[in-house]
Amino acid sequence: MGIYVTHDTGSAANVITLRGQVQSWFNSAAQELTSKQAEDHLNAVGTLKKIIEVSPSDQPRAVAELAAFVRSNTPITHSTAYPEPSDCSAFGVAESVQAALAAISERDPKVPMSVYLDRTELSGADLHGLNLRGVDLAGADLHCANLNKTDFNDAIMDRADLTDTKLIGTQFAGTRFTGARVNDTSRFCSHQQPRHPDYNYVCVS
Fold first, then answer.
1. Given its phi and psi angles, is residue 117 left (phi above 0), alpha (psi -120 to 50 degrees) or beta?
2. How far apart are CA 81 and CA 172, in angstroms?
3. Tell me: the pLDDT tens digits for 41-55?
4. Distance between CA atoms of 128 and 109, rounded to whole angstroms?
5. Handedness of CA 149, 102, 138, 36 (dihedral sign)
6. Distance between CA atoms of 111 and 106, rounded to whole angstroms?
7. CA distance linking residue 126 with residue 176, whole number of Å
């Protein structure tokens, strides 16, 4: 009984220590995200990613912070359509935004949370192989983005711009595409009959 109590006390102490450390990390990340320095943004993203890795219970808060950072740094400011085809080398996102998207991808799919990346300017972003299952990307600009092998299952992509994207092996099971812009629907399903983007695609290869 004495050994059990000692072990239990130690475990409780470890939990308290972790909680304090995680809160310290959140405070540090919040301060660095208000900075105007790109290096501070990268450090903050790295800190939030660490929280996702070590504390499942804090994943929703950390992911919400990352998503808010992406939204605040990638607002859509244009309303004109792109020429088709575009020179995709002219598009891209900041390194800190790219890192934040990769960190969001590290979340545990078993932990319930909502991820809002709607109305974000992600043209030219490299989302290759990321887990964006269930993410809200309604109205997002993904023009010229690399979406090869990205998991968009059950995502919301209503009114999103998917023109000139790379879509090899991309997963779209149950994805919503109402009003989405696609300049070549055959690229969604290379071995299937092209369909209008208002339908839900199932393209897993």
1. alpha
2. 24
3. 999 999 999 999 999
4. 18
5. negative
6. 11
7. 21
